[in-house]
Amino acid sequence: MALKVHGTVGSPATFRALAALHEKDLDFEFIPVNLSAKEHKSPQFLAHKNPFGQVPVFEHGDLKLFESRAITKYVAEAFADKGTSLIHKDPKKSAIQTVWTEVEAQKFDPTVAKLGWEIVLKPKFGMTTDEAVVAEFEKKLEPLLDVYEKRLTESKYLGGDSFTLADLHHLPTLQGIMGTKVKSQFDARPHVSAWASDILSRPAWVKVASMLTK
Amino acid sequence: MALKVHGTVGSPATFRALAALHEKDLDFEFIPVNLSAKEHKSPQFLAHKNPFGQVPVFEHGDLKLFESRAITKYVAEAFADKGTSLIHKDPKKSAIQTVWTEVEAQKFDPTVAKLGWEIVLKPKFGMTTDEAVVAEFEKKLEPLLDVYEKRLTESKYLGGDSFTLADLHHLPTLQGIMGTKVKSQFDARPHVSAWASDILSRPAWVKVASMLTK
């Protein structure tokens, strides 16, 4: 059954889904969705792809999924024997991995995506960066990265000793923020810095990130 | 092996974890954490319970978990044969359930928790409700509940034909908001309204919610 991803180059959520598919060495069709033309808000897209009008949307035969972290989880489980194993099978290891997957979704993403919006995206759209918001979220990031530093002293990856979805989910926002002054917060913490370099240089992610320069 | 929950009565995240444990008919020890006394920020708690200094924390023998949605997932999987089945075993049904679990975490919770903070909690703490924020988030909730209404026309529960974690995760924020004027948005949508009444009246949830009046 053919796999399809409807998404947009540069969309962090799209890139999250693509990273999982490449880690799994899967062939799939990428169908670009033109956000500028509001294709994702068309009645067709809302009715048949994602009622929230967002990318990515993933199709596997008649199964249609949205929400990038739901897509990666399905891909990791449905194609467990292909490519990189992105999940732990042992229930306790799996539970720890889920804890750190939640930390990404509940803590890292809201903080780093906000910084990315202010520092990277607003200037791109001709809007003015709100320095007070940047300062507020830079301050929030410090204790968060302190916890990451401690965690990465105990295990090589967030979810345990091997690379899993708990790490992979960070990639799109991490990539964006490492091109800004906020990188210094990562550099200041040796384990966080090594972890970031490690996961950003994975071939599957390099393949995804290279779509930006094509 | 004994199960323990370190948590606080009234904390939405604690209540989310407790709801799962009661649905599973599990015996566990509830260890109150006094947030006013900042017990959750003590060096002991940070080092041995949750490095982020939050409740709940769940223990199953030597396994220690934080993040409420990671706890419910572990409980649902590790005790699959006890009480209510909170997850689908079929991979495609499970994937759809995960989509709606993500919708709760990424869309419902940030909107409804914000409204609850402004309307319920701020007055309780002697702070002033920001009506502009209330209006902004009430407006965000409308299209979200429209999608819920459509979804609940297709299946009785968000994650499929049976009650799962995709529904359960909504309970703490849903309970809080139904005592406010925002309830009218739920009442205006027949399927959403029926779903909310249904899940809020589940015996396991009633047991959790009754802790507030003890």
Give structural notes:
The structure is a homodimer of 214-residue chains. The first copy, chain A, is built from ten helices and four strands. A four-stranded mixed β-sheet of chain A has the order 2-1-3-4, with helices on one face. In chain A, helix 1 packs antiparallel against helix 10 and helix 4 packs parallel to helix 7. Chain A is globular. Chains A and B meet through strand 4, helix 3, helix 4 and helix 5 of A and strand 4, helix 3, helix 4 and helix 5 of B. Chains A, B: Pfam families: GST_C, GST_N. Chains A, B: It catalyses: RX + glutathione = an S-substituted glutathione + a halide anion + H(+). Chains A, B: Its EC number is 2.5.1.18. Chains A, B: InterPro entries: Glutathione-S-Trfase_C-like, Glutathione-S-Trfase_C_sf, Glutathione_S-Trfase, Glutathione_S-Trfase_N, GST_C, GST_Phi_C, Thioredoxin-like_sf.
Q: Quick one: which chains have the greatest interface? A: A-B, 28 and 28 residues
What would CATH call the class of the largest domain in chain A? Mainly Alpha
How much beta of chain A, percentage-wise?
5-15%
What average pLDDT do the residues of chain A reach? 97
What CATH architecture label of the largest domain in chain A applies?
Up-down Bundle
In the CATH hierarchy, the third-tier topology of the largest domain in chain A is known as Glutathione S-transferase Yfyf (Class Pi), Chain A, domain 2
Order of helices and strands of chain A: EHEHEEHHHHHHHH
This entry's quaternary arrangement is: homodimer
